[in-house]
Design goal:
By secondary structure, the protein is α+β, with helices and mostly antiparallel strands. About 40% of the residues lie in helices and about 15% in strands. It contains 3 helices and 5 strands, in the order ββαβααββ.
């Protein structure tokens, strides 16, 4: 995968999470819906794992001085916000 010509390596789980968010940009996905879609409905564990993966994706995808792509919607979940086109 690449962004802005820079190669980015994602783990399988990071790719699944990003793919889920990319399919419906600008739509909030609940924590539960993300965990079910990416980790499976039978997954048992701390939902904090989602925060860890979101943080990892942010580090890999976002650059200082650029718009934030991954948005946290407090008390609800996460969304991928489309970046405005560059002038």
């Amino acid at each position: 995968m690449s962004r802005g010509g820079e190669s980015i390596t994602l783990t399988g789980r990071e790719f699944e999470l990003l793919h889920l968010l990319l399919r419906q940009p600008n739509q909030v996905h609940s924590r539960e819906a993300i965990l079910n879609a990416v980790w499976g409905e039978q997954w048992v564990g701390d939902d904090n794992v989602l925060d860890v993966y979101i943080r990892a994706l942010r580090r890999k995808l976002e650059r200082e001085g650029q718009p934030t792509l991954m948005q946290t919607v407090r008390g609800v979940g996460f969304m991928l916000k489309e970046a405005p086109p560059r002038a």
